[in-house]
Write a structure and sequence with these properties.
Layout lengths: L3 E8 L4 E2 L4 E9 L7 E8 L9 E8 L5 E9 L14 E11 L2 E14 L2 H5 L10 E13 L11 H9 L20
Antiparallel strand pairs: 1-3, 2-9, 3-6, 4-5, 4-7, 7-8, 8-9
Length: 187
């Protein structure tokens, strides 16, 4: 059983210019107090066949984490264009948000990102040299959530206590809603 469950990821700037930072809010539920911080990373994958080209755009530590529903805003830099092979700039790439506790990844949320030029002429006939200032990105609302069993340092509290903390927080969609292909919100 996971102590931390993602409830929602909301992108504030989607679609956006390719060179703009990513800005989003992560809402998650914690059902037991944690001794250490949670680590979150945002990773851009331009070439799925070559992990060496993956770019960690940013990471942050969140804690202490109280029992209940929590959220934080995260801003990650845009990918470094110099590290993306020219043939992989346009089209589909992946954006991955990972959550870890004590160097153990417990969740991975993956998104497809489409990158294209901002006008029809350039889309139809792309220039020979990529013009990054003319590119826009659009992150798909269809996502893929992968959960991993890890060794948490605590046991979950009784259901009644966790429910009391959650009841005092704002309502958010169920984490189960993140699994479906119909995830139709701005995530």
């Amino acid at each position: 059983m996971s102590i931390v469950t993602i409830r929602n990821v909301e992108f504030f700037n989607n679609p956006a210019r390719f060179l703009d930072p990513y800005h989003f809010r992560v809402t998650f539920e914690c059902i037991a107090p944690l001794k250490d911080d949670l680590e979150w990373k945002l990773i851009y994958v331009s070439s799925p066949g070559n992990e060496e080209l993956d770019q960690e755009l940013d990471d942050c530590l969140v804690g202490p984490v109280p029992v209940g529903v929590n959220s934080f805003e995260f801003e990650g830099l845009a990918p470094d264009p110099a590290k993306i092979p020219t043939e992989d700039v346009l089209g589909v790439a992946a954006l991955i948000l990972t959550g870890s506790y004590r160097d153990q990844e417990f969740v991975r949320v993956g998104y497809y990102q489409n990158t294209e030029y901002d006008n029809d002429d350039m889309k139809a006939t792309p220039p020979e040299k990529i013009q990054f200032d003319r590119l826009v990105r659009d992150i798909s609302t269809k996502l893929r959530v992968t959960r991993f069993q890890i060794k948490w340092d605590v046991a979950p509290q009784s259901q009644g206590h966790a429910a009391a903390g959650a009841a005092a927080s704002a309502a958010v969609p169920s984490a189960n809603d993140l699994d479906g292909d119909d995830a139709n919100r701005s995530t």
